[in-house]
Amino acid sequence: MTDTVARITNWDDSVLEQDILESISLDVPWATIELFAALVRLSGSPEERKAVDYLIERLGSWDVPYRLHEPECFISIPLEATVRVEAPDGKRFRAKTTAMSVSTDGRELSGELVYVPPKLREDVADDWSYGLDFTGLDVAGKIVIADGMAAPGRVIDVMTAGALAGVFVNPGEAIHESICTTIWGTPDLDSKDRQPTIPVIGVNNPDGRELIDLAKQGGRVAVSTRVETSWRKIPVLVAEIPGGCVPDEFVLLHGHVDSWHVGVGDNATGDATMLELARVFSQHRDRLARSLRIAWWSGHSHGRYAGSTWYADAFGIDLARGCVAQINCDSPGCRWADTFNELTAMSETVPFAETVIRETTGITPQTERPPRAGDYSFNGIGISSFYMLSSTMSPEARAEKGYYPVGGCGANIAWHTEDDTLAIADRANLRRDMRVYAASVLRILNAPLLPFDWRRTTQEFRRTIERYQQATGDRFDFRPSRDAVDALAAALDRFYESAPAHPAPDAPDARRFNRTQRRLARLLVPVNYSRQTPFHHDPALEVPPLPDLAPALSMRHAKDGAAERGILTAHLMRGQNRLVWTLEQARELIDGASA
Ligand SMILES: [Zn+2]
Asked: What's the gap in Å between 221 CA and the centre of ligand 1?
């Protein structure tokens, strides 16, 4: 049984893999990085178009079929910001504003500056989702100053509290660029009202400490911003190398071409990696079973994943029918990134990803749940997904350098600043990471049976439910969820036992086995990564595991209030129904397939 699953997840074609890995060269990728290192690739800008034209020219030269889409999307470019102490000759501080915040068109707003401390919540796991603690503070009509980058969760808190504007204190010397909306991609009727309604400003740490001192003395500041937010055409470039055997099944490899400043580590190195993979896989195209789509998105930085979200919308049914996996490529090949310690992978893909990385690099990766970020615009459709950021520095290396956490560039704090230049890219690391991506893509393209272990998913569900059960104690019973997980796990054992032994990818039993896996993804990914109905996009805020059940973690705080407890219980009952019904459908699907 375990042997059967290992045979499926560890599948490789070592001869072809060797040929492909040996075809990888640094020539094209490094030339691409050098070219991109001179281009500020703001979404929809002429310099970004130069980068896209270069990719198109290269693809054309290798006869790789491609399509350039130019959807009109909602894009926001931060231009400038000012902060000064409101007093005669008041000191001015260096400042930046953020994408999707309100523009004052250069006019100053002034108000009392109020410091609001962070609220540490136990039900969120990522740094970007922590909110602010307004207990005892009235900030209406005032300007809030808070620690941390202008993350959407904190910006919402400042908006909701009725503040005039928010000033966010970055952790170091730099002011990191960011986007502060929770709206994922272009707004729709359900999400449009979440558009930020206040000016948002970032300052660096020394200036921020000075401003916080001023706030504690009841000081006043004047702030202004200029942000250009509009509907504009952005490029979405998609290459497709058709598979020879089952071309309707495809892998989506993707990353963003737009950048903050010249964005070398984030994400010229990723763009170069994908271009080299297009070259190499097209060279070996007659040996590929499934199709490979490679997409370069714009709108990632300035439209909250507008490009990938548009693609998920425009090709939603197509993706639902045929996509076997989505692989994101962001920030590979960066300086000093010698571990895979923060490798994101959905549970079913973990054994596969661990094997391929160990075999290609000799490094044992540490995998974690994909956060709600990084062009994962396909969770609502339900697609097995792995990788987002690539190799990264070890925690020890970061501590030694005094680095704080950032969201890319292999943990280099040049991320989202003017300093993300050619110095951030590293040839040896890039070569290694391109090999990782190539081997990963090949194994999914050619494995007769998709190399995923869905038993890992049920194990994850069991751990999640156990944690939520501990939080609710006897106030809510998750037994129906546990029973449904057990029944699905037993069905999965039957599924893998009945796996065809040595099929070709186009053999009817392999087609059926893989179709069942795709359908499992359409059921089990959304219930674990989305609160929305299929084809809709969750806000850009953390989605905890089995999100409908996650409010269980706050049960202990609701102990004394009947109303609060009643609301929470109703929420958990509905959430549990969704989960149990989904798991039942998954089990029936499998029993139909292995009968
Ligand atoms: Zn990035």
From this structure: 33
Report in angstroms the alpha-carbon separations of 499 from 3, 493, 494, 509: 12, 10, 9, 8
Pairing type for strands 246-256 and 290-297 reads parallel
Dist. CA 274 → ligand 1 center (Å):
14
Residue 27: burial class (beta carbons within 10 Å; 0-12, 13-18, 19+): exposed
Q: What angle do CA 262, 302, 433 make, to 5 degrees?
A: 50
Ligand 1 center from residue 359 Cα (angstroms)? 26
Q: pLDDT tens across 32-82, in order?
A: 999 999 999 999 999 999 999 999 999 999 999 999 999 999 999 999 999
**Nearest residue to 377 (alpha-carbon basis) of 539, 240, 260:** 539
Nearest Cα neighbor of 385 from 336, 312, 482, 434 is: 312
**Alpha helices (H) along 62-187:** 152-160
CA of 331 to the centre of ligand 1 (A): 6
The DSSP-derived string for 489-503 is HHHHHHHHHT--SS-
Ligand 1 midpoint to CA 256 (Å): 7
| Full-model pTM | 0.96
Summarize pLDDT for 333-355 with one digit per residue, the tens.
999 999 999 999 999 999 999 99
pLDDT at 94: 98
The confidence band for 472, taking pLDDT boundaries of 50, 70 and 90, is very high
User: Distance between CA 136 and CA 591 in Å, rounded?
Assistant: 57
In the reported structure, the alpha carbon of residue 540 is separated from the centroid of ligand 1 by a whole-number distance in angstroms of 15
How far is the C-alpha of 184 from the C-alpha of 100, rounded, in Å?
Answer: 12
518 CA distance to ligand 1 middle (Å)? 27
Cα(304) to ligand 1 centroid in Å equals: 11
Among 55, 537, 70, 73, which Cα is nearest to 299's? 73
Tell me, in angstroms, the distance from the centre of ligand 1 to residue 259's CA.
Answer: 8
User: Phi and psi of 371, rounded to 5°?
Assistant: -75, 170
Q: Is 218 exposed, middle or buried (0-12, 13-18, 19+ CB in 10 A)?
A: exposed
> Radius of gyration over alpha carbons of the chain, in Å?
24
Q: What is the pLDDT of residues 224-257, one digit of tens each?
A: 999 999 999 999 999 999 999 999 999 999 999 9
Taking ligand 1, which is a single-atom ion, which protein residues have CB atoms under 5 Å away?
Answer: 266-267, 330, 408
In single-letter form, the type of residue at position 347 comes to S
